[in-house]
């Protein structure tokens, strides 16, 4: 059975609108940051931190990350709209681990979700159902 995590853009987030391109840009920014870290450390940290290629199928609602090394297979990422407890519509990113995904995929997906949610000041519902609030709540 597949597992899902959700990154929700709620009140207090940097932006309340998002596109699939925004998610891809965030992943590319993550990859660039790890490449710079690797350059400072003198080793290929980029491929260890982001062992995927971004693959699109022509659908504007989702794309997937395809693993380039053996312990990683794939992660599916898409955008959607969901409702909150108050009934308000909220834009979100759904990160799905299909049945074929490995423990390595789950670890990387958790890491990527935390990075994106923190940079967007969003609310993150992780694969285990726990919620992490990166948005300012008053």
Automatic annotation (TrEMBL):
Organism superkingdom: Bacteria
Classification via InterPro entries: DUF1885, Rbstp2229-like_sf
Pfam families listed in its UniProt record: DUF1885 (PF08968)
Any coiled-coil regions, as ranges: none
Protein name: DUF1885 family protein
Species classification: Bacteria, Bacillati, Bacillota, Bacilli, Bacillales
């Amino acid at each position: 059975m597949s597992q899902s995590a959700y990154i929700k853009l709620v009140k207090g987030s940097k932006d309340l609108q998002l596109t699939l391109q925004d998610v891809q840009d965030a992943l590319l920014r993550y990859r660039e940051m790890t490449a710079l870290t690797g350059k400072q450390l003198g080793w290929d940290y980029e491929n260890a931190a982001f062992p995927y290629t971004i693959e699109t199928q022509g659908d504007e609602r989702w794309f997937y990350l395809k693993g380039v090394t053996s312990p990683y297979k794939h992660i599916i990422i898409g955008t959607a709209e969901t409702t909150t407890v108050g009934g308000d519509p909220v834009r979100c990113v759904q990160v799905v681990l299909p049945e074929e995904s490995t423990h390595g995929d789950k670890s990387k997906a958790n890491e990527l979700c935390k990075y994106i949610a923190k940079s967007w000041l969003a609310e993150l519902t992780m694969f285990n159902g726990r919620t992490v609030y990166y948005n300012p709540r008053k």
